[in-house]
Amino acid sequence: MNIVQQVDTALKNGLLQGPLQGAGISVAFDTPDSAWIARRTGPCVNAFLHSVDEDHSRAQAGNIGVVDEEGNVVGYRRPPRHFRLSYLVTVWAQSVQDEHRMLGRLLEWCAETEELTLPEGGNRRLTLRLRGTGKEKLVTEDNPAARLWTTLSIPTRPALDLLITVPLERQTTEAMPAPTRGAALRARQLSTHGNRPVSRPQGRPGRPGRNVTEIG
To answer: How many whole angstroms separate alpha carbon 129 and alpha carbon 172?
Structure first.
């Protein structure tokens, strides 16, 4: 599954194991337009993904070291990028009273739940909150959910605008061997061969002769 499908699954599991547990209500991710309303059967919670944007407030610079079990640095990776998936959550039932009752449960669950776990992400956590409860201010004209009902050509209905932030890990670069900082050159004095001195041919005037070991 790609990352969006994983977030869908995490949200669905969280709802079915939380406020919808034992309620006999299904979870859908369809566009709640007039065609979907006409073919819908039974009570349903619809989580419509209406926008995806990057959370630049979580941006980090530099590289992160990757260490093995022995504590050795085996690679580097850039910090993850965080993206926000915005879901318009609505309740569809036989009566307004049933819808409001279930919407209240969803609101309480969203207020209490701060994290979800990706189904295929190991320990990767998703942060969950309602729009307008964090650093951003709820501004109607800048809120994409406020324009959805007009775009979908259906009457406005109560909804929760749910933000789920997911970290996207980046590729790891293997650590390279440490660079060579210099070279050491060692020299030793050549000894005589037996009792005879080693022949030392004369070099050119002004230049020292080379040491040559006599081969017997």
So the answer is: 30
